[in-house]
Amino acid sequence: ASKKDDGNHVTVYDAELDAEYTFRRKIEEALRLAIRSPDEFYMLYQPIVNARTMELHSVEALARWNCASLGPIAPDVFISVAEKSGLIVQLGSLLLKKIFCDMQCRPDLRFNINISPLQLLSSGFIPTLTRLLGEHSISPSRIEIELTEGVLVSNCDTVQAQLKQLRQMGITTALDDFGTGFSSIGYLQKMPLDTLKIDRSFVSGLGDDKVLANVLHSIVSLGRTLGKSITAEGVETLYEAEILADVGCHYLQGYLFSRPQPLDQILKAAGNGHSLTGEPCAQQLRRA
Ligand code: C2E
Ligand code: MG
Ligand code: MG
Ligand code: MG
């Protein structure tokens, strides 16, 4: 299990793998139980703002799990365990239900919803979504579904068909973490995606990389030429926000404006250099 074959290395590496494997198995067991007591899961919401006016555009729903036996588990971890164990379809519809209840509480907001590619490809997905829309009397135009690149590329035709169906329903779609995957320009042009969300790894480099602003400018121009709406993720400083707005991003999201928070703490107004929590952005910056 190691490139070096000195005995110690192999042992250390295997022990690490083993611990990782055991940890993920524990999470999987706990996840199976938790899906039957869905109170352990809750949603937080992070604002996405208009890059010119800084006004609230929509909120992204981000899942949290406070596991009864293991404590809080990060979504990157439990979502990937759920994907690998096949639990994601059940977990995904459980989370969807919570989000739809919240959507009913805040009819003034648009919601971005993360969907695992496996969930999108499952046969029950569109029917579940259609049922929830009806039950909660939600207009599909208030929803944007976010997908990551990974599985999308390999199941191109099926994914394309599902995205088309979402579009016919009036739901928009976004490619999440854009720039970290392998989408070709042809793929982007072909896929019925409305929005590109530029991954935060590009944004966080802006401070000390002069070339990056030009690279971003090119990416954003390409996206705009393809008719996509562009959102930048992980915006933490005013400096980043200004560059991203200058290079043509339509929307911005990140700690600068707000961390993910409970829905009832999302305020409607923003702008004038004020964050969505009501305090000046600059003040938030000084504290960071
Ligand atoms: P994502 O969809 O790309 O969500 C953005 C992540 O970046 C969130 O992490 C958010 O808290 C974090 N973030 C936002 N602004 C900033 C910033 O300025 N700086 C930094 N350093 N981070 C920022 P989170 O909440 O831990 O979620 C991680 C990932 O887990 C998400 O990435 C998404 O892929 C997945 N995920 C979360 N909730 C769900 C869900 O309900 N369903 C599915 N399928 N996946 C989910
Ligand atoms: Mg997302
Ligand atoms: Mg992302
Ligand atoms: Mg991500």
Oligomer: single chain
The shape, in one word, is globular
| Helix/strand order | HEEEHHEHHEHHEHEHHEHEH
Largest sheet: 8 strands, mixed, barrel
β-sheet strand percentage = 15-25%
- Rounded to the nearest angstrom, the distance between the terminal CA atoms is 42 Å
Helical residues, percent: 40-55%
Radius of gyration: 20 Å
Ions, cofactors and other bound molecules: ligand C2E, magnesium ion
Please, could you describe this protein's structure?
This is Bifunctional diguanylate cyclase/phosphodiesterase. The chain is of the alpha/beta class and 288 residues long. It contains 12 helices and 9 strands. It has helices spanning 7-34, 75-85, 88-105, 117-121, 125-135, 150-154, 156-169, 185-190, 200-203, 210-225, 238-246, 281-287, and strands spanning 41-50, 56-67, 71-73, 111-114, 143-148, 172-178, 195-198, 229-232, 251-252. It has an 8-stranded mixed beta barrel, surrounded by 5 helices. A hairpin with a 5-residue loop joins strand 1 and strand 2. Helix 1 packs across helix 2 (75-85). It is globular and about 50 Å long. The model is unreliable at 280-288 (pLDDT under 50). The structure holds ligand C2E and magnesium ion (MG) (3 copies). Ligand C2E binds at residues 46, 61-63, 74-76, 79, 95, 114-116, 146, 176-177, 200, 233-236, 254-255, 260.
Task: Write the topology of this structure.
Layout: H1 7-34, E1 41-50, E2 56-67, E3 71-73, H2 75-85, H3 88-105, E4 111-114, H4 117-121, H5 125-135, E5 143-148, H6 150-154, H7 156-169, E6 172-178, H8 185-190, E7 195-198, H9 200-203, H10 210-225, E8 229-232, H11 238-246, E9 251-252, H12 281-287
Parallel strand pairs: 2-4, 4-5, 5-6, 6-7, 7-8, 8-9
Antiparallel strand pairs: 1-2, 1-9, 2-3
Helix pairs in contact: 1-2, 3-5
The structure holds ligand C2E and magnesium ion (MG) (3 copies).
